[in-house]
Amino acid sequence: MAQTSSIDQLMQQIADEYESLSRQLKLIAKHIEQHRSSLMLERISDIASACQVQPSAIVRFAQRFGFSGFSEMQDVFRQAYTDQARAAPNYRQRIRKLISTRDGKVGTGELTREFIGASRSGLDELAAGLDDEQLEAAVILLQQADNIYVVGVRRAFPVASYIAYALQHTSKRAHLVTGLGGGHRDQMRSVRAGDVAIAISFAPYGKETLECARMAHDNGARVLVITDSKLAPLARTADALLTVAEGSAFAFRSLTSTICLCQALFIALAYRLEIDIEEIGAQPVD
C-alpha cells in the first residue's frame, strides 16, 4: 500500500514529482487532478481513452506513486469520495441525459436551471476542497504588498477586472494589467520586491499571464496564483496557490466559483486591514 494515505498527500506528491514525469504520465496526472471526485467511477480503459494512452501507462502511473496497480490507487479515491458522490449528482451525466431524452428543444427555463445546478455543484466542490492554509497565505501576501498587479486574459479577464476593482476600495495600490496594445510586459516593468502579482489563468492557460507571473517572480515580487490545477504551468511560480474547478453545462464553464473565491479573498483582506487600523487607533498616544 502506498505511504500516501490521503488524497491531498497523494496530489501533493504528484505535484512535487510532476516535472520528472514522462509526457504520458503528465497527461494522466492532469486527468486525475481534474477528475479526482469521479475517478472512483471510471474504468482504466476510460481514463486511458481520455488521456490518449495505453491502459498499461495508467498502471505504470499508479506504481510510480507506490501502488500495486490502478485498482489500489482507485480505492484511495473511492474511500474519500463515496459519501460525496452519493450526496452530489453528476451534472455532466444529467445534462447528457437531458439532451438525449428530449425530442424537441430544451426550454429556456430548464436550460437555465441546469446551468445554475452546474454552478452550484462547482461551489460545493470549492467548499469541499478549500485549502485554508493557502487562503491564509494569500491574504497575508496581499496585506503586506506595496503594489498589487492583477493579470488575467480572455476568460480570466473579467475575474482580474473584478479583483482590481475590489482592491481599489482598500488602501492598497492596485494595477489592472490589461495588455492594451500588446503591452503586458510594459505594464509589468515596474514590478519589484515588496509587490504582489495576482495571476489568474485556466486551461488552456494564457501565455501572457504566465509571462507576467515569471517577470514578477524574476523581479523579486511575490506571486498569488488562481488556477484550476496544482499541476498548471502557473503553479510553479506561486508563493500562494488557490485552485478552483468550475462547474460546466452545455460546454460552457461557469465563473461562479472563481468570483465567489475572489470575493471571499477580498472580504478576508478587508477584514484584516480593518483589524490593523483598529489596533493602531487603539494604541495610546504619547
From TrEMBL:
GO molecular function, one term: carbohydrate derivative binding
GO biological process: glycolytic process
Pfam families: HTH_6, SIS
InterPro entries given in the database record: Homeodomain-like_sf, HTH_RpiR, RpiR-like, RpiR-like_SIS, SIS_dom, SIS_dom_sf, WH-like_DNA-bd_sf
Domain SIS: 138-280
Species this protein is from: Janthinobacterium psychrotolerans
PROSITE patterns membership: HTH_RPIR (PS51071), SIS (PS51464)
Protein name: DNA-binding transcriptional regulator, MurR/RpiR family
Keyword terms, alphabetized: DNA-binding, Glycolysis, Transcription, Transcription regulation
Domain spans labelled HTH rpiR-type: 8-84
